Each structure stands twice: as structure tokens, then as C-alpha cells.
TrEMBL record:
The lineage of its organism: Bacteria, Pseudomonadati, Pseudomonadota, Gammaproteobacteria, Litorivivens. This is N-acetyl-gamma-glutamyl-phosphate reductase. Belongs to the NAGSA dehydrogenase family. Type 1 subfamily. Its EC number is 1.2.1.38. The gene is argC. It comes from Litorivivens lipolytica. It comes from the Bacteria. Catalyzes the NADPH-dependent reduction of N-acetyl-5-glutamyl phosphate to yield N-acetyl-L-glutamate 5-semialdehyde. NCBIfam families: argC.
Length: 346
């Protein structure tokens, strides 16, 4: 049984880690930290866990965390990178859900996060936590940088097209929308019910922190430098991401059923990527609470464009579920262990 530690367990991704791990057949949560809630029972903060988890939040302690088999960081950026080097030195393995180790270029990371990276030497070592692409690297990983929510949907949606060089690399457009939980569990005027309800808006159009991560992944897929136009939107709902991806085919003669076959073949061994039948329209409610990413392909008439639709739960496949998927592969467990939950409908 894996002994799991969680740093920063009071946010939404921390709560999701707990929700999934309490039913994991091969792992148990040994400790969960929070400086602000130290001494408080976990089920007092998260009543849904009453009767399922008898733990209290504690102050972070490196020695106690290092005694765990794996430590998850469900923290804002700039937290993990200050603690991870010491944990790795002590022999712990780490899965970071923040952006601290996702971008390989320390200078680029600093430009987007407006501070200096304190352990750039670990950036190259960190395995990017997108299991459908880098699953073979996870068993040897000491440090995993779990992929972001928008980047997961966008990279996997574009990946087969770029990998086979079927599209113009200068034509990539990603228009994506997320529920409010993507902004985290914090008090902000823009996240208030009266501000979000019955409203739909774009944000970060001139530059969003997920852009360099998205471009990095797309470049890995293409084998050369690639950049996409990315426009995020805020949906008036709690959770879920829907992305509409556009790319121009290099050869307009390529048929949509050929592209469908390509996607089905690419993800045939990916238990959490569902390539839906042609003409499908994946919905966010069809993945709510699950670790599934649903993809569907479309080809507008009289057009050389291909459109990929992607839907995922931003807190599960876009964060905590994906992190546990990484954990499973790191420790030689069944990739699907603990992640069999079916989406909640209605």
C-alpha cells in the first residue's frame, strides 16, 4: 500500500486528490498539510469525506513528508520549487500539480511568472505529466510536473495531427472555456456568483500563463517550434473545460475518416481518452467527476480546416485525476486504479 502525502490540501485540487484516493485500492493518505488549517479535521473542511478519512491537517514537515512513498503538491506556483529539492534529496518522489516544473526553460518560466526559478537544475529532469504521451518515462521519474488543465485538452487534441505533420503549423487556434473552479478556491470579486452567473467572457487574450506550456507541448509533438493562438474563456459553471481546436490541413484531399482512424489508432491504448464517433459533440457534463477526455473530429464543408472538439473535467483529468494516473504508472500499478468513476449526470 502506497503511503501518500499531500501538501496544500485545502484547495479544489487537494479536495479532489482526497476524494479519489480514499477509494484507491493501492494507496492511502498518510498526511495532508496546511499552515492555515493545521489541527483542523479534514472532514470539518470537507464534509463529503465524513466517515471516510480520519486525518487532521498538519504543518508541513519535510522529514514526515519524506517518509511517504509519494508527495503531491496541490499548491499555487512558487511553493513546490522551494520544497522539492529537499524532499528529493531525502528520497521522496514528487508529483507537482502546479506550474513550477512544467516549462523547461527557466528564463521563459520567469518571464511568465515574474520571479526567478529557485531550482532550474530540476526542470530538465522533471517528467511532464501527460501519461498518454510520456507514460513510458513515469516509472523512472523522481519528479513529475503534472500537465495543466487547458494544456491537457489542447495538446492531446492537436497531438496526432502534429505528430504526423498533417496540418500547417502556423494555423493552430485553440478556443477554450473553463468553469470557475479553474481559478482556484480563493476569494476574488471576479469569481463571485453575481459576477459569473449568466455571463460568458474571454480573458487572458493578450497572454495567458498556459501559453508557453501549450506551445512547448505542441512543439514536442511536431518535432519543431510551434505556436498556437490560445483564447481562454470563463464559463458560468463550476467545473469542466471545452476546447474547440482548429488547424489547416496541408493536403485538403485527406478525408475525415482517415483522420478519425489516425486518432483512434493513436489513443487505442489510452484508457482515459475517448475518441468519439464522427459527428459527435462531447459535452462537459459527460465527463464531470471523471478522468475522461472526450475528443471528436469535424470537417466543415468546402473547407481545408479540421476541427477537434475536446471536453474534460478541469479538476480531474485536468489536474488531480491525471496526477493519480501518473502515480499509478510511476509505481507499476494499473493505470486505471482508483480512477473508474463514471461522470455524474445530470
Amino acid at each position: 500500500m502506497l503511503k501518500v502525502g499531500i501538501v496544500g490540501g485545502t484547495g479544489y485540487t487537494g479536495a479532489e486528490l482526497l476524494r479519489i484516493l480514499v477509494d484507491h485500492p493501492d494507496a492511502e493518505v498518510a498526511m495532508i498539510t496546511s499552515r492555515g488549517e493545521a489541527g483542523v479535521a479534514v472532514d470539518e473542511l470537507f464534509p463529503s469525506l465524513r466517515g471516510r478519512l480520519d486525518l487532521k491537517f498538519t504543518e508541513p514537515d519535510t522529514e514526515q513528508l519524506a517518509a511517504c512513498d509519494v508527495v503531491f503538491f496541490a499548491t499555487p506556483h512558487n511553493v513546490a520549487m522551494n520544497s522539492v529539492p529537499e524532499l528529493l534529496k531525502a528520497g521522496a518522489r514528487v508529483i507537482d500539480l502546479s506550474a513550477d516544473f512544467r516549462i523547461r526553460d527557466a528564463k521563459l518560466w520567469s518571464e511568465w511568472y515574474r520571479e526567478e526559478h529557485v531550482c532550474p537544475n530540476l526542470l530538465e529532469e522533471a517528467v511532464y505529466g501527460l501519461p498518454e504521451i510520456f507514460g513510458d518515462k513515469l516509472p523512472q521519474a523522481r519528479l513529475v510536473a503534472c500537465a495543466g488543465c487547458y494544456p491537457t485538452a489542447i495538446q492531446l487534441g492537436f497531438w496526432p495531427l502534429l505528430e504526423q505533420k498533417l496540418v500547417d503549423f502556423n494555423s493552430l487556434i485553440a478556443s477554450a472555456a473553463s468553469g470557475v473552479s479553474g481559478a482556484g478556491r480563493q476569494a476574488k470579486v471576479n469569481n463571485l456568483f453575481t459576477e459569473v452567473s449568466e455571463n460568458f467572457k474571454a480573458y487572458g487574450v493578450s497572454g495567458h500563463r498556459h501559453m508557453p506550456e501549450i506551445d512547448q507541448g505542441l512543439s514536442w509533438a511536431a518535432g519543431e517550434s510551434v505556436s498556437a493562438v490560445f483564447t481562454p474563456h470563463l464559463l458560468p459553471m463550476i467545473r469542466g473545460i471545452h476546447a474547440t481546436l482548429y488547424a489547416k490541413l496541408r493536403d485538403p484531399a485527406v478525408a475525415i475518416d482517415e483522420l478519425q482512424y489516425l486518432f483512434e489508432e493513436r489513443f487505442q491504448n489510452a484508457p482515459f481518452v475517448d475518441v468519439m464517433p464522427l459527428g459527435s459533440h462531447p459535452e462537459t457534463r459527460s465527463v464531470k467527476g471523471s478522468n475522461k477526455l472526450r475528443l471528436a473530429l469535424h470537417r466543415p464543408p468546402q473547407s481545408d480546416m479540421v476541427v477537434v472538439l475536446a471536453a474534460e473535467d478541469n479538476l480531474v483529468k485536468g489536474a488531480s485525476g491525471q496526477a493519480i494516473q501518473c502515480m499509478n504508472l510511476m509505481f507499476g500499478l494499473e493505470e486505471t486504479a482508483g480512477l473508474g468513476a463514471i461522470a455524474v449526470l445530470p
